[in-house]
């Protein structure tokens, strides 16, 4: 395709059309739309001339806007002589009793998207009607719903006013005047549902407005061609062509005639002729003339038709990226508000435009849109925000508000600030916003209108749009991709303006003041438009003009009123323009005539002619603000929102990640801390347990050695030490494997130095003495080689006292070493659990737990004292043993050696083959002496010593019992005390 060509009638050879505007890109979706509808009978009917239409690139649809344009327009409008002058002799009129008061219902009364009425059932459905309206009703339904309530205009026209040119169907007027924006709403010439997106035959000026918007993708160049073609049959075609080359095709001027309720006598026909077909209004009175416009709506035309012909195409253009302005101009009470707002049953331009805007959005999936709306009024030359939240109406009059100022910059042109803009997402929402503004607008009853608008009201809908990714996917993934790679944002503005009506001086002072402001601003508007014509030749087609007419500012009094200042961008060529002028025609003697409407009507007609003739528009599609920076398209909220959303999403992701990481870290830290704490606690517990176990083990071992040793020696019996000793020795030696018995553990040997005296007497002592207390038995066989620890060379234990002393000393050394070992371990344990211990200690101190620190210290002191007492015991024991040894030495002087043999006999087998026996022989003191009758003294000493030892051993045994003392606390006490 790619190029779908639409039928175009052959036309005379004219210069190639040079449309004032560049070709408009059309979404591909349009192609489908077109295709679906262009395959209709109308399409085939026009197929013969399809080649004449510009080809469609990229599958774009073709517009039906390429309509022939009425040739008379320019000639008439340009001809000042043709404009009838006002008749100053017209008598001032007064409001007749029968005048219909304005009963316009604000669009607030229909919050839901309006349903058009008044269209005939034969209206072809809009191509947009294939999709539902926002309220769910298709446009077709909307249109057909209203068709019953409004009679066919043709029939009514014929009936009421046979002199008014009817628009019989299908009419193929050779004067059909195509326009960039115009497209007459007449659709009855087109079969229903068939050719909504196709151009009317060249001769038909009554091309469907719907058709025009259905094919709004048509480039302006196309229109230029059509205009040229349309003019070909008219002697004024050349003029029209040049006019459109000047950009006139972007300006539509329509005149709407309001029905005159008081005119039932047909007299109006005598003075006025309204020919909707020719789009002309003719005044036949004095200085009369014919006025021809793009559209003339007679009294039977309803709002829907007015919208279709005068505004629909412009609205579609705005959605495509052009700026567009629609305003209603006319005398008070002639139907401006009625046309712009409409009623619940007959919605006007504003609600119908809103419906179309959202229809367009729905049908343009390859672009995304953002709409924002503002609503202001110019009242007594001051601008007020009708959407401002502090707009509170008091007794029907809005409260005073902050004045809005007009500013201008290169990007935005002239704009009001500060002005509230509301972003809207549905037709209902948009209608409600506007209804809110309507309620805040100043209205008052006047002589001519019970609810007269006392201000100029401007609804501005800013349309931001941006191309979505190719393919226009609507999936979430596509949306995301689109958000990630934003294209340029195009910003266009649709201004819908309901001007206050010009009026004669009122009696009421307030109304007079309002009226003077209204009239002044309207006068300025008229002046600006009138002067546009003087500049048009210079400006037309020039870059200066395209730039917005900045140079014109020097000549044109835009700044004389806020209205003209606000309209400056539109009037100076940057916008597509549609002007709807409303008049009320009264015949001689009618109500309207009685109110001097004729003069005002003629003024309005002249204004409309000048506007059509003078306003030059070189509206261009707004550039897409490329780049994603905040500067690009400073007003493009769409971009900013996209960026903001992306930024927020990014932040949210980061925050989520940070939160997750933190939580993980926190969990990990907590876990680690818990583990560490548990580990520490466990380690400490294990260490303590180990320590305690070791201490207990050693202590038990040690004490066991003592006990066993004591038992083996028989010290707990009443028998004599020597006999016990011998007995023991016998048992020990009964296996004939005599070995010296160590009096102590091998470890003890090295740590305690044995006194020389004991050492020398150890082998010679004949005193029987118990075996070494600790570890003796366990050491037998292992440490038996230690010669110093021999029980006695003579085998009777006479050397046992010295051995005993050394054993005790060794035991003492053992204990000291043992304590040292415990100390080391405790210190080690303390280091690892220092903090914990100190903490628990401090807690104990603070909380007074377990009696507090004092109790602990006392406990430790007691343990220290206990240990000291034990040491003292040992010292005493050692001293007693030494003392006994000395006594024995003294007694040795009178020893009877006879007993020695007995003694020897008793231990005969032991002494034999023993090294110890040889030692014993050489000993200066025989151990037997201790047991002989001559050694009574020494025997007494031994008994005493034995007793002491018994006590000590039993004491230790008691102490070793777990129930009788806490090893752990004892150990701790020792370590802590040191
Ligand atoms: N075409 C029409 N068909 C039926 N009624 C109409 C038409 N035009 C206007 N009217 C009625 O005429 C009355 C005045 O209309 P409207 O208020 O729209 O005039 P206006 O031009 O806005 O006046 P003003 O400038 O004072 O605000 C209203 O009651 C309205 O319903």
UniProtKB/TrEMBL annotation:
<feature type="compositionally biased region" description="Polar residues">
    <location>
        <begin position="913"/>
        <end position="925"/>
    </location>
</feature>
<keyword id="KW-0206">Cytoskeleton</keyword>
<keyword id="KW-0547">Nucleotide-binding</keyword>
<feature type="compositionally biased region" description="Basic and acidic residues">
    <location>
        <begin position="226"/>
        <end position="248"/>
    </location>
</feature>
<dbReference type="InterPro" id="IPR001752">
    <property type="entry name" value="Kinesin_motor_dom"/>
</dbReference>
<feature type="coiled-coil region">
    <location>
        <begin position="857"/>
        <end position="884"/>
    </location>
</feature>
<feature type="region of interest" description="Disordered">
    <location>
        <begin position="650"/>
        <end position="685"/>
    </location>
</feature>
<feature type="compositionally biased region" description="Basic and acidic residues">
    <location>
        <begin position="650"/>
        <end position="664"/>
    </location>
</feature>
<feature type="compositionally biased region" description="Polar residues">
    <location>
        <begin position="184"/>
        <end position="194"/>
    </location>
</feature>
<feature type="compositionally biased region" description="Polar residues">
    <location>
        <begin position="203"/>
        <end position="219"/>
    </location>
</feature>
<keyword id="KW-0175">Coiled coil</keyword>
<dbReference type="GO" id="GO:0051301">
    <property type="term" value="P:cell division"/>
</dbReference>
<feature type="compositionally biased region" description="Low complexity">
    <location>
        <begin position="120"/>
        <end position="139"/>
    </location>
</feature>
<dbReference type="Pfam" id="PF00225">
    <property type="entry name" value="Kinesin"/>
</dbReference>
<feature type="compositionally biased region" description="Pro residues">
    <location>
        <begin position="14"/>
        <end position="25"/>
    </location>
</feature>
<feature type="compositionally biased region" description="Polar residues">
    <location>
        <begin position="62"/>
        <end position="88"/>
    </location>
</feature>
<keyword id="KW-0493">Microtubule</keyword>
<feature type="compositionally biased region" description="Basic and acidic residues">
    <location>
        <begin position="940"/>
        <end position="961"/>
    </location>
</feature>
<dbReference type="GO" id="GO:0005874">
    <property type="term" value="C:microtubule"/>
</dbReference>
<dbReference type="InterPro" id="IPR027417">
    <property type="entry name" value="P-loop_NTPase"/>
</dbReference>
<dbReference type="InterPro" id="IPR036961">
    <property type="entry name" value="Kinesin_motor_dom_sf"/>
</dbReference>
<comment type="function">
    <text>Required for assembly of the mitotic spindle.</text>
</comment>
<feature type="region of interest" description="Disordered">
    <location>
        <begin position="1"/>
        <end position="254"/>
    </location>
</feature>
<protein>
    <recommendedName>
        <fullName>Kinesin-like protein</fullName>
    </recommendedName>
</protein>
<feature type="compositionally biased region" description="Polar residues">
    <location>
        <begin position="758"/>
        <end position="769"/>
    </location>
</feature>
<feature type="compositionally biased region" description="Low complexity">
    <location>
        <begin position="33"/>
        <end position="55"/>
    </location>
</feature>
<keyword id="KW-0132">Cell division</keyword>
<dbReference type="GO" id="GO:0007018">
    <property type="term" value="P:microtubule-based movement"/>
</dbReference>
<feature type="compositionally biased region" description="Basic and acidic residues">
    <location>
        <begin position="671"/>
        <end position="685"/>
    </location>
</feature>
<feature type="compositionally biased region" description="Low complexity">
    <location>
        <begin position="1"/>
        <end position="13"/>
    </location>
</feature>
<dbReference type="GO" id="GO:0003777">
    <property type="term" value="F:microtubule motor activity"/>
</dbReference>
<dbReference type="GO" id="GO:0005524">
    <property type="term" value="F:ATP binding"/>
</dbReference>
<feature type="binding site">
    <location>
        <begin position="330"/>
        <end position="337"/>
    </location>
    <ligand>
        <name>ATP</name>
    </ligand>
</feature>
<keyword id="KW-0498">Mitosis</keyword>
<feature type="region of interest" description="Disordered">
    <location>
        <begin position="536"/>
        <end position="556"/>
    </location>
</feature>
<keyword id="KW-0963">Cytoplasm</keyword>
<feature type="region of interest" description="Disordered">
    <location>
        <begin position="758"/>
        <end position="798"/>
    </location>
</feature>
<dbReference type="InterPro" id="IPR027640">
    <property type="entry name" value="Kinesin-like_fam"/>
</dbReference>
<feature type="domain" description="Kinesin motor">
    <location>
        <begin position="250"/>
        <end position="614"/>
    </location>
</feature>
<keyword id="KW-0131">Cell cycle</keyword>
<feature type="compositionally biased region" description="Polar residues">
    <location>
        <begin position="144"/>
        <end position="154"/>
    </location>
</feature>
<feature type="compositionally biased region" description="Basic and acidic residues">
    <location>
        <begin position="899"/>
        <end position="912"/>
    </location>
</feature>
